[in-house]
Amino acid sequence: MAAKYWTIDQLKSQLSKRKDVKAWIISQENVHRRERYFLNDSGKLAIDQDREVNSQNINLRLFVPLAAPGRQGEITKKLFTARPLDEQLDSAIAAAEQTDHQSWDLPTEVPKNVPQYAACDPQMEEDLNGSMDKATIQISEAVSQKRATDFNSAELFLSVHNRTLHLSNGLTHRTAQSRAYVEAAYSMTQGTASDEYLHTSWSVHLGDLPIGKLFDEASERAENSLDVRKPMSGSYAVIIDSEVLATLFHGYFSQLSAANAYHKLPFIKPGNELIAQAQGELLTIAIDPSLEYGAGTAALSDQGIVQKRLVLVDRNRVLATATDKQYADYLGTEVTTTRGNLVIETGKHSHEELTQASPQVLEILQFSGLFMNGNTGTFGSEIRLAKLYDQKSGSVRYIKGGSLSGSIQENFKDLKLSNKQIKRAHFSSDKPTGDGYVGPEYALLSNVSVVG
Length: 452
Fold this sequence. Notes:
This protein is an alpha+beta fold and 452 residues long. It folds into two domains: 8-107 and 117-223, PmbA/TldD superfamily (PmbA/TldD fold, 2-Layer Sandwich); 228-451, no CATH class. The chain contains ten helices and 22 strands. Strand 20 (421-426) and strand 21 form a beta hairpin. The protein is globular.
């Protein structure tokens, strides 16, 4: 017998009838995804695997009343339309009743005149297969370039995420977001020695996906990956790129959130300095949910709050706290924007000027796996590949190995930022939303510890 699937309307109807349910948030996502894997077949690009996937995800955030005044239970559950609805709701309610949280309420009013922000590439939304073919042509052209290295493999993932948000206050809000990912791997062989370099990039719009540049960089860095040495231990002026900057500040962003204030985690109050005793270029940071084709572009938060551009930091002085409805209720403060793309004001230095800013400057090309602790602002990783600019000898050498460790509070005090702006995106399987960044392409940190 064929399975009987329930609908979102039936789910909402059942929840509305339950007296043991206080409120709910339903997130329904339908994903159309194309995956293409490439390999080297006798020196030419060949398609190894080609997949098309359609999937649906339904997540329910459930709130139940508890006997104690001012307390409520909360649980988030993934629901499946092929399983009986009543059984899943009974299980979710029972689990929520075993939790204990301070009460808070969803907004009582449904927002009107919700802004329309561009978050989905029209070409991908209309014809995902055609978009895949066009991007494949770009990859083929990049692979066909004559290089000293060998092309090994590549991956291309394109997807369109149609999402509907349902709140128990009556809100229904539909959005669409596109995502594009490309990966390129090149290797260099000298005698018996060989090494591979893997390079990746995300974007929301295909026009922002740097396919040609990414393949060029992967090849160039693979070519230099064998002529390397370990760094000498010591303190260095270090150039990091926008990918690392975005990772560090998206992690550090928690210290500007009301959630940290409520849970008594490290929190920087408005009026205080973001970086104590900063003397270099002073940071100005905003979160902008309206950015065209940004990974964090969103008109509404998951709690149904209209999102607007919010300046968090102005020249190192904290101005605002990112506060959703839950923590605004907890703390008795105003609701502000919590979703958006991280926007950092650019500096005044060219990349070349940054490489000459100290007697020795280490430019990180790739970490093996960057670790960042948002509560402390500390970070570290093994160095996958770097360049060492030595002003005394005038040489530029490639570095591999050793480890780097630093702290935003210490190593950003004498910060220098590049004058070129770049746009980045990142998505991960453990987060339903993406991280968007617009800001300096490079930053120069001071006195960073490196162990060879």
